[in-house]
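Next up, a chain.

===
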Amino acid sequence: MQKVFDAAQAAGGALPWEDYIRICLYEPKLGYYAADRRRVGGDGADFYTAASLKGKIFSELMAESAKNILARARKDMKIFDVAEIGAEPNSQMFEKSEVFRLGDDIKIPPRCALFSNELLDARPFSRFKFQNGEWSEGFVKLEKAAGGFSAREIFAPAESRAEILEKYFPRAKVEGFRLDVSFDALKMFDAICAQNWRGVLIFADYFRSADELSTMPAGTARTYRSHHDGSDLLENAGTADITFSPCADMFEDIARARGFRVVRVERQEKFFMENAEDKIRETVLLKDPFNPRKRELCHLLSPAHMGAVFGILAAQRL
């Protein structure tokens, strides 16, 4: 917290939520993603991801989906390099993929099938509140207190950022309504799409449409620690994951503006049923009813588990 306090003092006593979260997640050696710790998996970790399931069926469904999307465009997956962004240390979805991790310079191969899993929701985000007839941006104000520091949220007019909130969330203009938006993730995604490459892009994340987010008045910001979620972003700074649900519409619009076609976000269950049907059938028809691959498939597709929680953004530029 000392690092956060020092940054707040340098900024005049208060930090935008985006800067606070960036320090908590990415500050070298101290941030949640920068420190040497186990984050993903079972005991001793903080959360699961689809890619961390032991049977690796998620990776197979992703690869099968890319192959079929390209095949419908009369392209052969074999002529495309495979790359993924945001994998955890010492892990990756595909054995022979080119992997871009934290701090790497992302250079997409000229012909590429590009994947990510929970990349965008891990980026720093801003927090907004509609009050007194306008959008205000949240800041974290830190002060020294007995035994450490005290922190509270304050607000200031959202100014230039209010325009994009007006564009995507006109229905959310209700007193007290909160929104969480990552301009950092939008910038990162635009930089990826702006590079000179051709192929297919498949990103899995906690996507929600602008309409969905406009029915969630408390916002979507949350923490994960020891497989428990929380709502206090000021607690366990640097030792808990901080995440949110990216607005699908914003990323779809960026991809379209960069020349991608067939851009849409589907719920994970629907996307795999439409694009990896043969792989799903192959798993369902396994004779052993207790085969762990079947259990993982159910976990990925069930609306009660990951099937409806996650969305997949698929786009092609060929």
